[in-house]
Amino acid sequence: MGARFDDKVVLITGGAGVIAGATAQAFADLGATVVLAGRNADTLAAAAARIPAADCRIDWVAADVTDSAQVAELVDEVVRRHGGLHIAFNSAGIFGKGAPVADLDEDVWSKVLGVNLTGVFLAMKHEIRHMRAHGGGVIVNMASNIGAHGRRPGMAAYAASKAAVSVLSRTAARDHIADGVRINAVSPGATDTPMSFRPNETRADRDARISSAVPVARVGTPAEIAAAVVWLASEESSFMVGHDLVVDGGATA
After folding, report:
1. Distant-in-sequence, close-in-space partners of 156: CB < 8 Å, separation ≥ 6
2. Which residues are catalytic?
3. What pTM value is reported for the model?
4. Which residue from 195, 139, 166 is spatially nearest to 13, judged by alpha carbons?
5. CATH numbers and ranges of domains, the chain
6. What per-residue confidence (pLDDT) applies to 55?
7. CA nearest neighbour of 157 among 96, 210, 216
8. 210-221 residue pLDDT tens
């Protein structure tokens, strides 16, 4: 890909996550200034320190995406520090404790929907408000191949939240493309992150399980997901509006 992001400011929510880190590195390598956001300042600072970048291109701001006032202040702080906001990758998300629907704890349901869906809504709400007033921008939301594309037993809250993110992204894309804000979603499959492991599962067990279920016979790498996000954020995908890009090694093909 020949895209560059010099003079672009990129905000990544869920910034302490593995995919977020790989995406931050990819954007920084292509010239962007990247701001990581999340609830815990210590983990954000550590995540930022792990990303090699020249010219102090990696920054962080603590904020809870489920709190509208904090998200509004997050966007304002990014703009104050770096002069603008051009690209956002809304990747904050949790699994929650799985259970069949009849046994699903209502607090788990509320927490998962709060972070995965309401968090994306609030992030987009405030990102779009800034972008449409300042010449436009690009937003990529983290959905999942579990949800709109496939379902698994015991994952109702997660699947519902991510299916809703897919639909929300496409609806927002239609709402705001005339404002110069281009919105898409990315739906990863099993990726080499802590969330890909079942309780007490070893890496060898995880790899064997996934190799038997995924046509490419392996887990995805964070860099592969990052590459999809960067492409969706680039001018090379400028005709992509309201798309949900599945990157799952063929698992839901």
Report:
1. 99, 100, 101, 104, 109
2. 158
3. 0.95
4. 139
5. 9-245 (3.40.50.720)
6. 57
7. 96
8. 999 999 999 999
